């Protein structure tokens, strides 16, 4: 059964659309939600950029968006992003800004903070980080000194760049050791985490992943961190939206600091969020500003407040649970098509799959799916020398799709991957689904 998570979402009938760029901009039926107030001016003054925006809107609506880190924000969030708050410079925090005229943006930030605290049961929230990576690096800056030992999921096992990559400042400033997942089950190897913690005595333990499809046992991580006197930092960028909707365990009661993005399943603007215990509030705030960032992006903070408000609704709770149901249905369908799923399935929106059983590598698979207008990622596979596919169900659930559509999507992916019809049959099926479930139906 499909769940419509917001009044603007749901099934409707539409014809297949093809992307329009500059040449077709003038013929487009109109701007998408959140753009209306200034889009006519943009179209007049810069038709080249206007055409690109319209073309991207068509691209998003004409195919299946299965990138696990993406979603469709609401028209209200888009409106806040395009508001006059984008004009306001606001270094500092509410009541202590370095610029005048901040009375109203102070209120917006306080509302965002209060809503985030209430939504996640946190003692303190900082809504200024420009991204999830900025939030994680600020947490490190608040709690660690250069050279401190840190334990985090190894990148090849599913860790993020900010979890110690040599190409990232985290791997250059701190001494990371990586833990992993069990080679047989694909689940976090908690015995290994404990052994490494005892051996390296890290200043902080980081848990979180870009590709782990199961729930993390935060209580076990807390126990291990306490045993070695380490801070527990949870990178909840992927599950935080499910947490908001009560569809995943909440890390806040266990972590010293929780870092997250405000997009993905949470369905807000692209940005970051830090939740922490009140005893760390001043250190976290100073690490965000002035240590690692300058002025806050007040239009984005207002959009975060809107998203937090939406996430506190009964409709969002239904949405979050449907995301999980859809993830499980899509996983089952992909397994039936012959893909090998990491951990054998999912508890979340996220699915990691190996296409080797179909005789393909991940890049070839992604190209075949792109030809059918299915967009997704590749990612490393734990304990394997090849890459796999990473998929997510957040965006298609926002469009109003349910388990039946997930089964159909799995069939279409199987058809495209096998390549028997060079993708034409799969592309037609994708177009039919996209037409029935547009992301912004009132504006199609």
From TrEMBL:
Residue stretches making up the Serine hydroxymethyltransferase-like domain: 44-412
GO function terms (MF aspect): glycine hydroxymethyltransferase activity; methyltransferase activity; protein homodimerization activity; pyridoxal phosphate binding
EC number: 2.1.2.1
Domain of life, source organism: Bacteria
Keyword Amino-acid biosynthesis: yes
Keyword Methyltransferase on entry: yes
Residue positions binding (6S)-5,6,7,8-tetrahydrofolate: 155, 159-161
Name of the protein described by the UniProt record: Serine hydroxymethyltransferase
InterPro entries membership: PyrdxlP-dep_Trfase, PyrdxlP-dep_Trfase_major, PyrdxlP-dep_Trfase_small, Ser_HO-MeTrfase, Ser_HO-MeTrfase-like, SHMT-like_dom
Stored NCBIfam families: PRK00011.1
Region (Disordered): 1-39
Cofactor: pyridoxal 5'-phosphate
Pfam families reported in the protein's UniProt record: SHMT
Subunit note: Homodimer.
Pathway as given in its UniProt record: Amino-acid biosynthesis; glycine biosynthesis; glycine from L-serine: step 1/1; One-carbon metabolism; tetrahydrofolate interconversion
Residue numbers of N6-(pyridoxal phosphate)lysine PTMs: 264
Cellular localization per UniProt: Cytoplasm
Record function comment: Catalyzes the reversible interconversion of serine and glycine with tetrahydrofolate (THF) serving as the one-carbon carrier. This reaction serves as the major source of one-carbon groups required for the biosynthesis of purines, thymidylate, methionine, and other important biomolecules. Also exhibits THF-independent aldolase activity toward beta-hydroxyamino acids, producing glycine and aldehydes, via a retro-aldol mechanism. Thus, is able to catalyze the cleavage of L-allo-threonine.
